[in-house]
Amino acid sequence: MQIKKWSALVLGATLLVGACGTQKSNTQTEVKPEPISDHLVNSTLWFQRSYEAKYTFEQAYRHAGTLLEQNVQRAASRGRRMAVIIDLDETVLDNSPYEARLVVNNESYNEESWAKWVNERSAAVLPGVIHFIKKAEALGVEVFYVSNRSVDLMEPTLDNLIQQGLPFADGEHILLKEGDSDKTERRERIKQTHRVVLVVGDQMEDFMLEYTQIYDEATSDGSDRAPISGVDSLSQYFVILPNPMYGSFERSTYNGNSVSEAEKMEYRKRALNVNRKMKQ
Ligand SMILES: [Mg+2]
After folding, report:
1. Proportion of the chain above pLDDT 70, given as a percent
2. Alpha helices (runs of H) in the chain, residue ranges in sequence order
3. Which of 123, 189, 212, 241 could be cross-linked to 93 through a Cys-Cys bond (beta carbons 3.0 to 4.6 Å apart)?
4. Domain 38-254 listed as CATH 3.40.50.1000
């Protein structure tokens, strides 16, 4: 039976190769592997080539600078050291070449290829970052880089930031992942000695909990300032940056990593909404 099946496949090779998937054959028919990272093509192109991406980053960091000035003015009289908490990947550093390699090499994200990329120490800084961080430094605000890069990658990360001329590139101001990817504990550590005046990231997880903490502090510090509303607080203390390449938006479509790459694509497609209507 198997021989008959394969004979039929070889005869109809042009149409059926794709459907064969990864089945092994002892014929000479070359079966091209299914692309597993092609979903990254357009988002990576947008990130690397679009004027919109460049301008969005510059605009967001200009806005971050304005908020920083306002928040420093509010906090200055309270007599604590001030801090900005900022994410690293796709917030400060541009790892889109790594995403491009996933497409070209037909790989999905893995720790080995990621570590290889990080060890090259060649990630560029995204538009607007340097100006913003130098502004923070000039205002007397310390910048803490809180990232979910593994702590094993501290040395190349530090080198990369130093090479890019970023202030506060030192062991005290870079907090990488030592266990949990939840950044709450690391933010708490900073809050023990500093008043956090702004948080910048490309994922809501970079600051969702921080939002609550800042809000609590703003309303319970004994000042006579009227409590700020949740929405105002969010927009006053957080700046979000665009990352169409990866993030929780994607993971939420297939509930984590327990499915194969081929299945992930199916989950993503199934999550598309062909009837979405805007809610007013
Ligand atoms: Mg990030």
Report:
1. 78
2. 2-11, 13-20, 41-49, 51-75, 96-104, 111-119, 129-138, 154-163, 184-191, 208-220, 230-237, 248-254, 261-271
3. 123
4. yes
